[in-house]
Amino acid sequence: MRFGFEKLAQDGAARAGVIHTPRGEIRTPAFMPVGTAATVKAMMPESVRATGADILLGNTYHLMLRPGAERIDRLGGLHRFMNWERPILTDSGGFQVMSLAGLRKLTEQGVTFKSHIDGSKHELTPERSMEIQRLLGSDIVMCFDECPALPASDKAVAESMRLSMRWAARSKDAFGDRPGHALFGIMQGGVTPELREESAEALKAIGFDGYAVGGLAVGEGQEAMFGVLDYATGFLPEDRPRYLMGVGKPDDIVGAVKRGIDMMDCVLPSRSGRTGQVFTRHGVVNIKNARHQDDPRPLDEACGCPACRNYSRAYLHHVFRSQEIISSMLLTWHNLHYFQVIMAEMRAAISEGRFSAWEAAFHAARAEGDIEPL
């Protein structure tokens, strides 16, 4: 079976569909939990699946450093290694290398950098990134790119984008012919429409199985991000999935889908769960606050996750303040469940032609705020 994308419905710019892979279908719009080091922190793989996730994201940079791509390959590949038999997307390592600006050297060939773990020296090129992702056995592979932090000058953004397009061509050549596996190109260009269009045209000329909108959620703010998405998705092919990298908060996700995005990922639901920040239909709840210590009610009375079905706010407040491991487990599960509920509701709303009404209700519920203290 080959990789393929099927658009099933569209309401405005919002799309509902399915990505077909040999390891199973990915319903879109899709949110991908982040399993940076071959694990979604505080979650068992079967628990992640129970939230409704069809696909996970793994991190090339972190896995190449520890435990090593060659070791994972010898042990049967990333799916077997982490006990996740459904699709996995791996990023190229470019974003993490960008964040190591003080430890890296950038050239036309690629990037040399020092490991944040032990200071050892490594080189990452388009060819090496493709090799690592092949060893991991990724179902969806991202081409190697360079992502400048914003704000930056148009000159710097243009130079970076054109370097990324040259690396995209090298990534495609190194990826080769791998039936059942997909390679996604990454559009760059900052917040400049002309650069975004130039990048999209270069990627389409190379030809990819899917297209990501990169270089956003890196400091530009939601208004600027939505401004780019208002036009950038229109530069990309209709018959390929569109992936917005590193996004985001619930209202970011809804706004991105409204503008034609099919796939997203972010560490926010799992990271926030570990720090006591909980997302609900009525907004953000900080479980650490003393207002919850005598509250017998659930986080969200309409939620079906284990944290809401079986535990009170008072208990969740207690285990968080006591630094018990179950706190991270329950709050992460809740957040991931809530994010998947949003995706399922959007898929249904798009399919039934009522996305605008659903979006209005989503924002209205959040504007009400959390339930009143007892």
Describe the structure.
There is one protein chain. The chain is an alpha/beta fold. The chain has two domains: 4-265, Alpha-Beta Barrel (TIM Barrel); 273-359, no CATH class. It is built from 15 helices and 16 strands. The chain has helices at residues 45-50, 60-65, 69-74, 78-82, 94-99, 126-136, 154-175, 193-206, 222-232, 250-258, 268-274, 306-310, 313-321, 325-351, 355-368, and strands at residues 4-11, 14-21, 24-28, 30-33, 56-59, 88-91, 104-106, 111-114, 121-124, 140-142, 182-187, 210-213, 242-244, 263-266, 277-280, 283-286. The strands form four sheets. The chain has an eight-stranded parallel beta sheet with strand order 4-14-13-12-11-10-6-5. Strands 1-2-3 form a three-stranded antiparallel beta sheet. It has a three-stranded antiparallel beta sheet with strand order 7-8-9. The N and C termini lie far apart (55 Å). The mean pLDDT is 96.
Judged by helices, strands and strand pairing, the structural class is: alpha/beta
Strand elements, count: 16
Shape by Cα distribution: globular
Total tally of structural domains: 2
Any idea of the CATH topology of the largest domain?
Answer: TIM Barrel
Query: Approximately how much helix is present in the residues?
Result: 40-55%
Strand content: 15-25%
Task: Describe the strand arrangement of the main beta sheet, using strand numbers.
Answer: 4-14-13-12-11-10-6-5
CATH architecture of the largest domain: Alpha-Beta Barrel
Q: Count the DSSP helices.
A: 15
Kindly, what is the distance between the CA atoms of the first and last residues, rounded to a whole number of angstroms? 55 Å
From the alpha carbons, calculate the radius of gyration and give it in angstroms: 21 Å
CATH class of the largest domain, named Alpha Beta
- Uncertain segments are none
What is the typical, i.e. mean, pLDDT?
Answer: 96
Characterize the largest beta sheet: strand count, sense, and whether it forms a barrel.
Answer: 8 strands, parallel
What is the H level of CATH, i.e. the homologous superfamily of the largest domain?
A: Queuine tRNA-ribosyltransferase-like
